[in-house]
Amino acid sequence: MNNTNAYITQHDLDRLESLIAMARRNHAIDLSYLDSLEDAMLAKINIDSRRVPANVITMNSRARFSDPLLGLPLIYTLVFPTAADADTGMISVLAPLGQAMLGAIPGQVIEWTSGGRTRQLRVDEILYQPEAAGEYHL
Domain total for the chain? Predict the structure, then answer.
């Protein structure tokens, strides 16, 4: 994953750390995957919600993507697991694609592994970011 400007808001970090701790206790997800998610979060620049750039995918952000090979437009929203519904484009932050989305910016190509193969999407545009809309605690 190529996150050159990888930010995470303190609010999102706090909630994600709680989510990871709960998943560890419940053994809901492979522990090595949780380690990978936690490492990726901690590698991001922690920033106050009111200072995060408007062009960064944060939790509950909606963005338009394109497949570099097919050029197909896709719209996804990054959500917590309870709101996830891949059929409607609601992608869980605990899913490999969701992990790749968090902190991404327009122009960036994100990568994740699914079904044993590496997939890529280009971030074309942030359609909605809660912090940019003045909604700091979604």
Answer: 1
